[in-house]
């Protein structure tokens, strides 16, 4: 009887160890797949931000500062996710309280989501209330961006006072996941949808008048609408990456989170962040043209240097004969 009982206990222990090993290996795989995506996101986003800042032509275009804001938020979120994954994977001691870690991640994620809301709201003011000069100034742009950062900070402050998803305690609040679902997904989606529906309705209503009166004004509208469409797609990309992760945490589906499906969702999040940054770079024609010119010029220089070295080598061979 005791012998059978010991066998049962040993089998349970072995099954627990094997399940832990499997979950650990899946976590390791996801971290090593996510790592290049996160690093590339940081590199491309920082490259874009630096390029906009150092080039006066790009810097004078106030619309570029909205995409810079999105890229900065992507960098902050990528750095937080990267540090968290490295700490878990390599058992690096972390002396930062779990509430502060959760606040930093949620705040950067909120900023990434609300940076798209800032673009939609600013374009709403610019297009619908075009007669107001202040709405088309850089001061208005910086005011909207600053308000977006402040709002993302305020909605994330609760994580400093309540145990969140990074705290390994039994006193986690069940309210907090639903709060995160609303503030990080539902509310940004509502803001983006309402602002853009209002913009498209206004443009459709006034398109005939604009076409008949002022071609320059119509060109400004076309440029604004193009930015709105770009930011809608960018928001959709980021939204797609965040939906599975937040839903799993909201409804406490920890079994799925530790399964292969959860690993795919984590990889999807890092992949969508990279895709969002590359999409912003690609959809900026002056930046894309500038990068293309640099690549073509560098390729031609390499070709010229290769030809020059080959000619020198042939001349050296002929002279030795």
Automatic annotation (TrEMBL):
Keywords: G-protein coupled receptor, Membrane, Receptor, Transducer, Transmembrane, Transmembrane helix
Membrane topology: Multi-pass membrane protein
Molecular function terms from GO: G protein-coupled receptor activity
Gene3D superfamilies named in the record: Rhodopsin 7-helix transmembrane proteins (1.20.1070.10)
Pfam families: 7tm_1
Location within or outside the cell: Membrane
Domain G-protein coupled receptors family 1 profile as annotated: residue spans: 45-279
InterPro entries: GPCR_opsins, GPCR_Rhodpsn, GPCR_Rhodpsn_7TM
Superkingdom of the organism of origin: Eukaryota
Transmembrane segments: 29-51, 63-83, 103-127, 139-161, 181-201, 227-251, 263-282
Main location (coarse class): membrane
Any one GO cellular component localisation term in the record: membrane
This protein's name: G-protein coupled receptors family 1 profile domain-containing protein
Source organism per UniProt: Adineta steineri
